[in-house]
Amino acid sequence: MKHHDLDFELEADFNDLSAEEFLYNRSGPWPQPAAHHPLGTVPSVLHLPMDEMLSWWLKIGSRYVIDLITYPFIALMKAWRYGGLKEMSDEDFVNYFLHTAYSKYLVRELTIKNIQLFSDFLQPEKEYLMADFSAMELLKPNENIYCEKSIALFEIQNKTIKIVAINLRDYIVTPQDGDLWALGKFIVMQGASVHLNVAEHPKLHFPMDAINAVTKTALPKKHILFQLLYPHLELTLSLNYQVLNNPTSLLENKWWMIYSPFPATPESLRNLMVIGYCGLKENPSYQKYKYPLEGPRKIHADFGVFHEQYYPAFYDFAEKVLEKIPQNDPLVSRWANYIHHMMPSFPDGTEIWKENNLTKAVAVLIWDLTLGHAADHRTYSEIPIYHNPMRLRVSSPITKDSKFSLDKSKAVSVLDQTKWLMANRLFYETWNVTNLTDVKYEFADQSLQKCSLDFQYSLKRIEESLRTKNYMPVNQIPSSIQY
Ligand SMILES: [Fe+2]
Questions:
Q1: How remote is the CA of residue 103 from the centroid of ligand 1, in Å?
Q2: What is the reported pLDDT for 8?
Q3: Separation of 155 CA from ligand 1 center, angstroms?
Q4: Ligand 1: distance of its center to the CA of 201 in Å?
Q5: How far is CA 199 from CA 168, 423, 445, in A?
């Protein structure tokens, strides 16, 4: 009986709101099972309002068209001048794992299997990290291209790390192995690059679509939660739709796609995306996706410390704004229930009111859509492509061969690298449409306007006292996922 009463009250609440009080007259976008792998990936938004599509075309799609016409020749010339891959020192290699989005791959838990694998290299008094790209072997490579699994072992040494060994096939290579060591490092870089594109970075993009659509459709425009989130939801639904569902998406990896740098069939790339969400059994490097209610994931490197320094500003901002929403506000409970229904790791309408869960859920969302996402792009797009192959045209020898010789000019083709440069130009480099520091929230409550100014001010203060490298200058953080 109680449930009926509650429903009746909710109905009454909704009757007070006319359709016009909602952004899309209550008929806006909504999450549903994804078109590809509906059970293995997060829900998707497949029907978009026309004006969101148009806005995407105007502000992002048109840039792709211009670059597709003007940039291929420049990319070709650059790729030709690089002439393949280039010498990558152990220090360069380690720096990519400390100072870019690749640091997310560093895992502390060593499984029994990996302890046995690297038993000759592990010393009990030392600490280690691993980067595991085992799932590369599940890809179906294109002709004359190789996708090999690899596991890299790093030793922690006074706040920095040293690369110790790499597992290829069923043997291990070390810095003493000459060209085979050089190839090992490139195989790891290829694993990191492909994983970032299809298994890791998608976790910042696509799970947030459900929240994006539900917020636009189910919260009235006057609601504080709507006003807080709306500026961070611009362009992203259409962008994500284009990546996941457009037949010309780079994920389709057709031969004529001058902007698709991938090494494998589209089906196998999408399978790797599923592994990114679902994880691999007994492998701490491949964890099942959960909504990150506890904030940005712990990263064992400078790049992680950078995010840890900024996160409290996002949390405080969310907390101050959300304080104004009455406890058990039925519109917020409904909002959470709708999202939870599609994404069970998001708190439901009851859980959302417990232990600051609303603040946590909203703070991490805003962080994810702005700084969290953009810092991945900035650091990844700045890795020189002659160190960061997406396709490799040489394979490691079937048994360990110390006489192996690597021709770096033949390890990738000029066309491979041209495609990589095109993808970098179109999709990875940071092209902001709107900046976070320029956001004007439509808060009716003037005290909340002050909160938003305080937020922007605190971001700048954090930047001035950063203890790490500045991976993303505050005035270049976009207000939403725009690339
Ligand atoms: Fe992205």
A1: 16
A2: 57
A3: 30
A4: 6
A5: 21, 17, 41
Rounded to the nearest angstrom, the distance between the alpha carbon of 125 and the centre of ligand 1 is: 39
Tell me, in angstroms, the distance from the centre of ligand 1 to residue 198's CA. 10
Sign of CA dihedral 145, 151, 153, 159: positive
Grade residue 6 by pLDDT with cuts at 50, 70 and 90. low
Amino acid identity of residue 235, one-letter, is L
The neighbouring-strand residues paired with 156 are 161
Report how far ligand 1's centroid is from the alpha carbon of 417 (Å): 20
Distance 429 CA to ligand 1 centre (A): 9
Distances (CA, A) of 242 to 60, 72, 197, 371, 412: 11, 21, 15, 22, 28
- Does pTM surpass 0.90? yes
- Distance (angstroms) between ligand 1 centre and the Cα of 343 equals 20
Closest to 181 (Cα-Cα) out of 406, 466, 9:
406
Contact 97, 161 (CB under 8 A): yes
Q: Token match 């009111």: residue?
A: 353
- Placement of tokens 């505050």 in the chain: 474
No. of H helices and E strands in the chain? Answer: 18, 4
**pLDDT for the residue numbered 17:** 87
Please name the helix (run of DSSP H) or strand (run of DSSP E) that holds residue 361, with its range, or none.
helix 357-367
The pLDDT-based confidence of 159 (bands split at 50, 70, 90) is confident
Distance 180 CA to ligand 1 centre (A): 33
End-to-end CA distance of the chain: 49
Quick one: which of 285, 55, 125 has its CA closest to 191? 285
In angstroms, what is the span from residue 377 Cα to ligand 1's centroid? 6
Domains of the chain: 2-87+205-476 (1.20.245.10)
Rounded to the nearest whole angstrom, what is the distance from the C-alpha of residue 109 to the centroid of ligand 1? 28
- Cβ neighbors of 161 (< 8 A, separation 6 or more) are 94, 97, 98, 106, 129, 154, 155, 301
The answer to whether the beta carbons of residues 52 and 24 sit under 8 Å apart is: no
302-312: per-residue pLDDT in tens?
A: 999 999 999 99
CA of 77 to the centre of ligand 1 (A): 26
Burial of 187 (0-12, 13-18, 19+ CB in 10 A): buried
CA of 353 to the centre of ligand 1 (A): 31
Distance 315 CA to ligand 1 centre (A): 22
